[in-house]
């Protein structure tokens, strides 16, 4: 599942390619991908609009249409690709937006857990307000963690993955951030000392920034906006490395299950 670095990589590509383009034609091949609207209603809201900017909020791609916003969430296997009209068609095409200058924006999704929807200004503000703090923003500080963490006894890895608290950190980057912070993922959030919370803050920001630099992690499905894989998988230190040697201490990376998800960590390095 794409996490913050993968979505950010796509957004940076799209922010370079799309602004100034007008949506000329809307084809909805898979109506179930459109949330809260009929394919016709959705098409009517975005057809003829100019894309003014592309940003990210949590794991959502947000296109500013000058008033309304078009949002895309990739779900498990969604891909959003910029292509030339007539270029080879992807399988599992869900939505095609024909742009000017012979280009298309294509959304395809094998498992169809992704979704596309529009939000007017007020609805956007409500949506934005209900999401947690952006971990790469100035609001994600050690002080913020010191305020928020003592209120919860949830294991810190599960805590970090709650999108109402911190957005965009999923299973891969929560494990990696806690390894970098040298904090045991099983620790209750309210047991963490200020210096440990400061290390967690740094670990989260470092791993996300590095993963963006390497254009995200591809195991199976994730591709950037031009269809290329990310290169960060080779740089993961614990995730999906059960039984392998820890690069820091020479111990063995272990796997446990927390909240139904695999957690990878080094018991010798993380306390
Ligand atoms: Zn270790």
Bound small molecules, by name, code or SMILES, are: zinc ion
Q: How many domains in all?
A: 2
Task: Tell me how many strands there are.
Answer: 10
Instruction: Name the helix and strand elements from N-terminus to C-terminus, one letter apiece.
Output: HEHEEEEEEEHHHHHEE
Strand content range: 15-25%
- Enumerate how many helices there are, as a single number: 7
3D shape: globular
Structural class label: alpha+beta
Provide the CATH architecture of the largest domain: Alpha-Beta Barrel
What's the Cα radius of gyration? 20 Å
Looking at the chains present, what oligomeric state does this protein adopt? single chain
- By CATH, the topology of the largest domain is N-terminal domain of MutM-like DNA repair proteins
Mean pLDDT value: 96
Q: Main β-sheet: number of strands, strand sense, barrel status?
A: 4 strands, antiparallel
């Amino acid at each position: 599942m794409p996490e913050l670095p993968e979505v950010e990589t796509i957004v940076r590509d799209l922010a370079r390619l799309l602004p100034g383009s007008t949506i000329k034609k809307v084809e909805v091949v898979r109506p179930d991908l459109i949330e809260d609207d009929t394919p016709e209603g959705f098409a009517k809201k975005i057809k003829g609009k100019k894309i003014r900017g592309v940003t990210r909020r949590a794991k959502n791609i947000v296109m500013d249409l000058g008033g309304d916003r078009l949002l895309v969430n990739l779900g498990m296997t969604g891909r959003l690709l910029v292509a030339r009209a007539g270029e080879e068609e992807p399988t599992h095409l869900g939505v095609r937006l024909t742009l000017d200058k012979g280009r298309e924006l294509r959304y395809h999704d094998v498992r169809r857990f992704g979704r596309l929807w529009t939000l007017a200004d007020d609805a956007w503000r409500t949506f934005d307000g209900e999401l947690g703090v952006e971990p790469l923003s100035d609001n994600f500080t050690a002080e913020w963690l010191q305020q928020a963490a003592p209120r919860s006894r949830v294991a810190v890895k599960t805590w970090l993955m709650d999108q109402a608290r911190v957005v965009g950190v999923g299973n891969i980057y929560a494990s990696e951030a806690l390894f970098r912070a040298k904090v045991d993922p099983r620790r209750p959030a309210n047991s963490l000392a200020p210096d440990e919370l400061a290390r967690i803050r740094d670990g989260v920001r470092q791993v996300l920034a590095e993963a963006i630099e390497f254009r995200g992690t591809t195991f199976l499905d994730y591709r950037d906006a031009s269809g290329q894989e990310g290169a960060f998988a080779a740089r993961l230190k614990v995730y999906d490395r059960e039984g392998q040697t820890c690069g820091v201490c020479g111990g063995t990376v272990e796997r446990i299950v927390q909240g139904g998800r695999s957690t990878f960590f080094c018991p010798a390095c993380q306390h």
